[in-house]
Design goal:
This protein is an alpha+beta fold and 119 residues long. The protein is built from three helices and six strands, in the order H-E-E-H-E-E-E-E-H. Strands 1, 2, 3, 4, 5 and 6 form a six-stranded antiparallel β-sheet that branches. A hairpin with a 6-residue loop joins strand 5 and strand 6. The chain is globular. The protein starts with a helix and ends in a 6-residue tail after the last helix. The C terminus is likely disordered.
């Protein structure tokens, strides 16, 4: 009887450990530092703020396909954070990177440079 109980208990512990690991894997985002020391956190397109997703449907981005994964970039120097979104033009090798703040506006640094069509 002790053996049966021990086997059942071990099975329950192992099963719950795998369940916790799978849940963690589904919700974990990849976080890395880029060459400037800015923090880059992987974000799925569906998890972007609604204002950012709405901005991506505008005429500036017509004919482009949004990649499934974007990045939330937090500037090391405290200059803010933005969502870096990569777009591709179907049928070509053309790509474009757009940096938008949480309100769907061009990130202020890019606004100042008038450069939202980055490659």
């Amino acid at each position: 009887m002790k053996t049966l109980f021990l086997v059942a208990f071990s099975f329950a512990v192992i099963t719950s450990a795998f369940g916790i690991q799978n849940d963690f894997r589904q919700t974990a985002n990849i976080i890395a530092l880029d060459q400037d020391g800015d923090k880059r956190t992987e974000v799925k397109y569906a998890e972007l703020p609604q204002a950012v997703r709405d901005a991506m449907t505008g005429t500036d981005y017509r004919g482009w396909v949004v990649q499934e994964t974007a990045y939330l970039v937090t500037k090391k120097d405290g200059a803010g954070e933005y969502y870096e979104i990569t777009l591709t033009r179907p049928g070509t090798d053309e790509t474009r990177t757009v940096k938008l703040d949480k309100n769907g506006e061009l990130f202020k640094k890019d606004k100042d440079n008038n450069n939202h069509k980055q490659d």
